[in-house]
């Protein structure tokens, strides 16, 4: 069964405690937390205080996705705030291997996120050093966008790279994930589904999470 990682960027922040309680009681596996700086992406989301409060509200994995420049400046602070795993963008890191080693040294799982235009082949030299790839299936910065179909081919290519090298790396797909396309995403080789609006705009989020979890 796929890992389900609802994105709290789409949650109701006036009811954040209730949203966390719902996720805790659901079949969700991870809390996906998108951090945006208004520089790497044209939007600003939330930072350390929100993550600290979410951390106190759950024992599930806090999966933090940094859509920011110079992530190395803040890695320690995200660990202190409660991140279990930290993904940085390949496009934002001048010294990607150093960034990965820093995250690992802080006892977090290390992820690398890639934008829709970025070839998965660029991950070849770091794939053995990371725990997950966060593959963007929309252009990062805003929720509610449509899934880019070409992503399915990229997932298949990346899964082949992982399997051929006998690596234990998870593929997480982020953006435009719906009940309708989740099966195709999993069939292409993904392990984890990030879902924002699909979950939080649903009339029954718990049921929607269960549907994604049991998509096959």
Automatic annotation (TrEMBL):
The answer to whether UniProt assigns keyword Isomerase to this entry is: yes
Q: Name one GO molecular function term.
A: metal ion binding
- Is-annotated flag, keyword Transmembrane? no
This protein's GO CC annotations: cytoplasm
On cofactor binding, the record's note says:
Binds 1 divalent metal cation per subunit.
Q: Which residues bind a divalent metal cation?
A: 32, 34, 65, 174
Q: Which residues bind substrate?
A: 7, 65, 141-144, 174-176
The pathway is: Carbohydrate degradation
Q: What is its EC number?
A: 5.1.3.1
Q: So what does this thing catalyse?
A: D-ribulose 5-phosphate = D-xylulose 5-phosphate
Which superkingdom heads the taxonomic lineage of this protein's source? Bacteria
Which keywords appear in this protein's UniProt record, sorted alphabetically? Carbohydrate metabolism, Cobalt, Isomerase, Manganese, Metal-binding, Zinc
Q: Which GO terms describe its biological process?
A: pentose catabolic process; pentose-phosphate shunt
**Which leading EC class covers this enzyme?**
isomerase
Active-site residues annotated for this sequence:
34, 174
The record's section on InterPro entries has: Aldolase_TIM, Ribul_P_3_epim, Ribul_P_3_epim-like, RibuloseP-bd_barrel
Cofactor(s) this protein requires: Zn(2+); Mn(2+); a divalent metal cation; Co(2+)
Family as reported in the entry's similarity comment: Belongs to the ribulose-phosphate 3-epimerase family.
Protein task:
Catalyzes the reversible epimerization of D-ribulose 5-phosphate to D-xylulose 5-phosphate.
- Output this protein's name: Ribulose-phosphate 3-epimerase
